[in-house]
């Protein structure tokens, strides 16, 4: 029992000595080093510093669209034979109306053509007649039709049409222009059929019914062709083309 008590007292003294040494180490500066080392770390955590923002700019997609005029331009053909939509020409202000003139032209982008020696060419000289597009003959442009005007009338009616020059024709100014044209549309009525009905069955109003004039047709039917007088008059009027379809169209 005495030996055990002695060992216990020795262990307590050893623990006190270790505790004293650890406190002395901390007070002598060992702990301050750790404290100084921990302060920058704590500061770095609290103050992360200025942040950098990176903006990702999307790269512009390369355009692969083909211009619509390219579909009209033959590849590797003669530059002088390209359609007007494929070239750009400078106006020659010294040209005389109706006379041949030369114009300096440039091929549009995405269009390839060659000269007489089959060499690639961008700038060339084109020969054409000096005149504006609206001065071209009717065979060189196409115009819109109107079905809302009367073709059989006195005087003849006109309408405003939008005309476009054909691709192979070269001219000065705008290639699309308005123009006043006579009404010339047709609804499918034949002049020969109307005249035949007027001669054979005109007394029953068959000619008027065929032309879509049902009121006059009923009048001729119930009056027996106006006792023949109305029938003879209609034969003459249809024969000279004065009486036409009710919708105002032309005969075929």
TrEMBL record:
Keywords: Glycoprotein, Membrane, Signal, Transmembrane, Transmembrane helix
Location of the protein in the cell: Membrane
Primary localization class, coarse: membrane
Protein topology in the membrane: Multi-pass membrane protein
UniProt xrefs under InterPro entries: TM2, TM2D1-3-like
GO cellular component: membrane
Full protein name: TM2 domain-containing protein 3
Protein source organism: Ursus maritimus
Gene: TM2D3
